[in-house]
Structure formats: structure tokens, C-alpha cells
Amino acid sequence: MKLYIKQKVFSWGAKFTVKDEAGNDKYFVEGEVFSWGKKLHVTDPNGKEVAFIQQKVFSFLPRYFVYVNGEEVAEIVKEFSFFRPKYSIEGLGWDISGDFWSHNYMITRSGNPIVAIRKEWMTWGDSYELDISDPRDETVALAVVLTIDCVMASQASAAASST
Description:
CATH superfamily: LURP1-related
Oligomer: single chain
Low-confidence stretches: none
Structural class: alpha+beta
Largest sheet: 12 strands, antiparallel
CATH topology: Porin
């Protein structure tokens, strides 16, 4: 099953629409503009919150908590590395590898694919394709991918503001 994330260009705070293969709205993602740390709410088309992502504010390395249906299911940590970004997903037994800068990476469990992420180029705003192997992992996989995107965007913003 595939999901498509289209980030809105020039939006105040993070706003995403996640669509299914038929182009129907499947999830809506909205960030809190004025909060301590990054926070994202993922809702279904009926407005019910299905996932919540929260940054741990006072942490040496970027650290985010992922909640699905009100229960903490994972902690995403950007690990210390010099040349290539590296992440760990704690709580799910998932591994992550690939090229994060070009947004082409894969999340696996015991070598079996959970979700493959591919950035679509030549589009207005960022667009991503998520190919999810098992529909039962859909919400968690989406939340994990959104978390990694948050970390990448925060670091790109910090790098741009420091120059």
C-alpha cells in the first residue's frame, strides 16, 4: 500500500496532507506553531487524532516521542555522527538505513521491509511516496517518517539561520 505526503509550500507551521493511492485524503498533519519543541498532530479525515509526535526539548541530541492512539509506541533519536545522519527507532524493533539527505531510505524489522520512502523530485514543495508492506503498520510507519522529516527540517533551518 502506498501513501503520498505533500508538504504545503509557504505554510505557517507544518501542514501536510497524506493521500492514498487513489488520491483521496487519508491523513492530515498539523504542527503547533507556538510550543516548546516541535509537536505534530496526525488526524484521520473525520478529525480523530491517530498519532502525535512530540520533541523532547532538553536533550543533547534530537529526540522525539511517537504516540499512536494515545499510547507511546516509539522514541526516535538522531545519533551522533559526523558525515551522514543516523537514527535509531527505540521500542519497535525497527531498523532504518538509506540516504536521508535525498529522502530515499528504508525501515525494516529483522531484514523484512516495513516502509520504503522515496522523495519525488520536480514537484512544487516536498512530496514523498511511502510504500508500506503491511497495512497494520500504516499509522506507526507514517508517524516515524514524519518524525525523521521533522528532525531533518529542524537541522536544515538551524544551519540556514547560522550562516
